[in-house]
């Protein structure tokens, strides 16, 4: 487990997606991404990398409308692979299948490959460089966007692709939001994240524990357009893991002090950010 995705940090652990054709999505996530089924029912599938811990849930509502790319919601979710060799293997697999890629980037802190599922839900596959190689200046991390080096494929070894590596985790989530400043206040002042990178008035990157980012926020195509109903293909909600009941309780208190509605049903606590994106506040089972 990455030290940035365990106690005492707060991080994203899972995403729950709405899809328009569950069978089509199952085929993509199993055969293209190599994830395993933890639960497979008529309307819902839970996917895992290691066969035990859920990463992505797929749900097909009775009538799923098309994905609205101009509304707030998911920009992409990002699966963190254990090594550069694993990323190279995944890239080679996608190239062999001629699966359409949206890009490949070197962000200094990481290397990444981008694609989308059949409903247009964005996906990043990435590997982190060692954290002692990241460059920081006054609490801001250097995170440019350059082309990924073709030498990544030199990492390949003989042998067939074996699916998603077992130690793959949810590395971060990137959201498109309606109002960047309101979102920054909500996630930082309310939920307890730190601002670690900022790109003019277009994008913020936030984290806990000195990670390069657990959450990205942008208004590139969603400014002024909050998330809509929960029947459109896209993200239904994501899960934030808090290190303790105390830490989650402090976040809830801060949110209530900001007059943010908080829904508490037993142990399940949910909130909606200023863009109407639903978040489940969970306490890590490891603590």
Automatic annotation (TrEMBL):
A Pfam family assignment: Glyoxalase
Entry-linked Gene3D superfamilies: 2,3-Dihydroxybiphenyl 1,2-Dioxygenase, domain 1
Key words, A-Z: Metal-binding
Presence of keyword Cell inner membrane: no
SUPFAM superfamilies linked: Glyoxalase/Bleomycin resistance protein/Dihydroxybiphenyl dioxygenase (SSF54593)
Full protein name: VOC family protein
Domain VOC: 11-128, 169-284
Organism: Sporolactobacillus shoreae
Keyword DNA repair: no
GO MF term list: lactoylglutathione lyase activity; metal ion binding
Cross-referenced PROSITE patterns: GLYOXALASE_I_1, VOC
């Amino acid at each position: 487990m990455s030290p940035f995705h365990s106690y005492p940090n707060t991080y994203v652990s899972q995403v729950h997606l709405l899809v328009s054709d569950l069978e089509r999505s199952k085929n993509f996530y199993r055969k293209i991404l190599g994830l395993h089924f933890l639960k497979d029912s008529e309307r819902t599938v839970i996917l895992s990398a290691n066969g035990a811990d859920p990463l992505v849930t797929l749900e097909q509502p009775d009538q799923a409308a098309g994905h609205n790319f101009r509304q707030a919601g998911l920009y992409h979710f990002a699966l963190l692979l254990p090594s550069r060799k694993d990323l190279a293997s995944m890239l080679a697999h996608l190239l062999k299948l001629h699966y359409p890629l949206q890009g490949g980037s070197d962000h200094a802190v990481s290397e990444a490959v981008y694609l989308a599922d059949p409903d247009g839900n964005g996906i990043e596959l990435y590997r982190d460089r060692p954290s002692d190689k990241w460059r920081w200046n006054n609490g801001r991390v250097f995170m440019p966007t350059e082309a990924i080096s073709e030498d990544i494929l030199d990492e390949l070894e003989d042998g067939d692709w074996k699916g998603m590596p077992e130690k793959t985790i949810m590395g971060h989530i990137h959201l498109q939001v309606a109002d960047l400043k309101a979102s920054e206040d909500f996630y930082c002042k309310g939920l307890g994240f730190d601002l670690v990178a900022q790109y003019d008035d277009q994008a913020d990157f936030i984290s806990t524990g000195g990670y390069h980012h657990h959450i990205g926020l942008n208004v590139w195509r969603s400014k002024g357009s909050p998330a809509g109903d929960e029947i459109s293909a896209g993200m239904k909600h994501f899960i934030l893991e808090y290190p303790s009941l105390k830490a989650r309780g402090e976040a809830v208190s801060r949110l209530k002090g900001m007059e943010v509605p908080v829904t508490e049903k037993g142990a399940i606590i949910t909130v909606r950010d200023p863009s109407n994106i639903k978040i489940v506040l969970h306490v890590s089972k490891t603590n």
